[in-house]
Amino acid sequence: MVTHRLVLSIAVPMTLAYLTTPLLGITDTAVVGQFGDAALLGGLAAGAIVFDLVFATFNFLRSGTTGLVAQAYGRGDGRAEQAWFWRAFAISIGIGVVLALVGPAIAWIGALFIDGGPAVTEAMKSYVIIRLICAPFALANYAILGYVLGRGEGMLGLFLQILLNGANIALSIWLGLVLGWGLEGVAWGTVWAELIASIVGLSIVLKRFGKLPRLPLSELLDRIALRRMIAVNRDIMIRSFVLLFAFALFARQGAQLGTLTLAANAVLMNFFLVAGYFLDGFATAAEQLAGRAVGAGQRKAFADSVRLSSFWGFALSGLVAAVVLIFGDQLVAFITTAADVREQASAYLPWAALTAVSGVLAFQMDGVYIGATWSRDMRNMMLLSFVLYVAALFGLTALYGNTGLWAALHVFLIARGLSLTAILPFRMRETFASAPFPPEERR
User: Fold this and answer.
1) Coiled-coil regions in this chain (predicted)?
2) What DSSP character marks residue 215?
3) Is 162 exposed, middle or buried (0-12, 13-18, 19+ CB in 10 A)?
4) S-S: 185 plus which of 121, 144, 175, 291, CB 3.0-4.6 Å?
5) 352-363: per-residue pLDDT in tens?
6) What are the tens digits of pLDDT across the range 322-344?
7) What are the C-alpha distances in Å from 263 to residues 254, 255, 337, 360?
């Protein structure tokens, strides 16, 4: 039975967990800012961009694992849960080791892309190379969190995220500020925090698996299962690439409209990103509950998962939009002291506030499709929405300037949500074709 309480038991802890991430960025900036060196701050910002781009590519290790584990959990198949985790864990360690080894090359490519001047480039390279040392641990944490969320253990997920980000904040302050290591101390703080979180998380998982029969290597290397995992992860990775590129295009087109517009849009995009942290909690609930329903063959439970998680997603998005509309000017003033940027941002504040509402269906449907492992549909609808977005981006921006640019972003978000919603009934009929309908549905 999927109830409001069950949805909230997963969504609320994970919303709180996701909200700890911005605190980490604020802390790192504050620590480095104490040294009064603009180049160090520039290196931190540039390094964070490079690092986020690299690791966003492999976010499928979290989301793909959640969907596969959730379906196994719904079937009551503990062996399959264990197998999906170990496959994801092995892939994460392999990719992580490669990333750590090629860290200098990634830092060099990032320096060429950012092109921030000698001092900024040197700081950025140092930061990226150190942080990539933790790649095996960071990606392992993706697999661990994916397994935990696949089982719907929101409170355990909250604990692991608070442990990770809390340790990161504490270590960054201690190494960077107290010991005076500066930017390198912040980077090493992340490395040690990822290591601590991976050790704790893996210990919890191993203790649980210790009560289950040991899986033979042949089962873990099952070719059909590996092909399924690769296909799901490949589609999610393509979807993530396109999403990142869409936001990069938004920033680029804003830059074409002038430095002031670029700065104002950058300030306003913070509201959309923060709204995303709130909405991700309910998308995570949709992932787990939809995946569990597919695994159990329960059509009604699947429909209830979509309906209830979307209800709470829309309610929260409306609340976030209202807060931004009412207090947006004060929030903008807190972020920047530049009067011209404040004025420009205020003019486009409603467009930014309403992204939470226009984007909520995209967040929720992404969660549903990840849980159901309908990754190919999610990839295809993302590509379709991106084509519509590009057409709107260049067409509306040419006609209406920055207003057109924000309108294009709304087109992209709405297109993603509606396209996935439109094909949802077809996928449900296909997936639950052999599942029995409860008496109330037959009526």
Assistant:
1) none
2) P
3) middle
4) 175
5) 999 999 999 999
6) 999 999 888 888 766 778 878 88
7) 9, 8, 12, 25
